[in-house]
Amino acid sequence: MKKLLQISDLHIQPRITDTLLGINTEHYFHQVLQHAQQNHGPFDLILISGDLTQDPCPDSYQRILEKLQSYQTPTVCLPGNHDDWQLMQTILNQGLVSCCKHLILDDWQIICLNSQKDNSPIGYLNQDELSFLTNCLKTNLPALIAVHHHSLSVNSSWMDGMMIENSQAFLAIISQYPQVKVLTNGHVHQVIAENYQGMAVFSAPATCIQFMPQATEFTVTNTPPGYRVFELLADGQFNSDCYRIDEALTGLDTNLHHY
Ligand SMILES: [Fe+2]
């Protein structure tokens, strides 16, 4: 059995003292990692599913790298709409931390996709990315696919406006490969656990601000940040659950409307 920790949407700011909607995202990133490690660790892999930074800059990625290195756990990072993919691949590429997109964990394969669309918060999987996916799936091991943006509606109109634009084409490819057991994303800052044609579809909550499920416009809640844990079993079965830290968000300004 392999144990995987998924964290997402860190939104780390340029300076350690900066806040986002009144909260210090860095503090909660640290708290989430600590809570996960203490209650469910050690992990065989940490997967970070995008939006590591709010306004990408070298300092933010450097501080993330240093924090991750202190856990001495293999870690892979994929980009979200807020990230600078070039910068990520340069800085988050040391020791056990990388932006590796395809790895084998004993009996499972982990496939990380880039759903960035140029100058847009919307998700898109271009032809190269879809070809990469098809290529990976030539390996006939149970697969967990991770990508920042969501592929199925979360019944939240403002958020669904940013889902993967060509998710139908993406899901049509996946449907041809029964070894794909799990599709998991970030971006939605809320917990998803669904089923699509026999495949489990999940999200991890953000490590910072949470969005109100089913909201028609940008709405934040003071629900504590959290993370998702996967147990990947040798026979292709798996277990997964989300957990939240015990500490509520302090300083959250719910009246601000600029995400
Ligand atoms: Fe995002």
Protein architecture, described:
By secondary structure, the chain is α/β, with parallel strands linked by helices. It has one domain: Purple Acid Phosphatase, chain A, domain 2, CATH 3.60.21. Helix content is 22%, strand content 25%. The chain has 6 helices and 14 strands. A 6-stranded mixed beta sheet has the order 4-3-2-1-13-14. A hairpin with an 8-residue loop joins strand 11 and strand 12 (220-221). The longest helix is centred in the first third of the chain and has 16 residues, at 25-40. It starts with a strand and ends in a 15-residue tail after the last strand. The structure holds fe (ii) ion. The site of fe (ii) ion has 6 residues, from loops.
Overview features:
alpha/beta, six-stranded mixed beta sheet, Purple Acid Phosphatase, chain A, domain 2
Order of helices and strands: EHEHEHEEEHEHHEEEEEEE
Mean pLDDT: 96
**Briefly, what CATH class?**
Alpha Beta
Helical proportion, percent range: 10-25%
Describe the structure in brief.
With 259 residues, this protein is of the alpha/beta class.
How do the helices and strands line up, and which of them pair or pack?
Layout: E1 2-7, H1 25-40, E2 45-49, H2 58-69, E3 75-78, H3 85-91, E4 97-98, E5 102-105, E6 108-113, H4 127-136, E7 143-147, H5 157-160, H6 167-175, E8 180-185, E9 193-196, E10 199-203, E11 210-211, E12 220-221, E13 226-232, E14 238-244
Parallel strand pairs: 1-2, 2-3, 3-4, 6-7, 7-8, 8-10
Antiparallel strand pairs: 1-13, 5-6, 9-10, 11-12, 13-14
The structure holds fe (ii) ion.
Fe (ii) ion is lined by residues 51, 80-82, 148, 187.
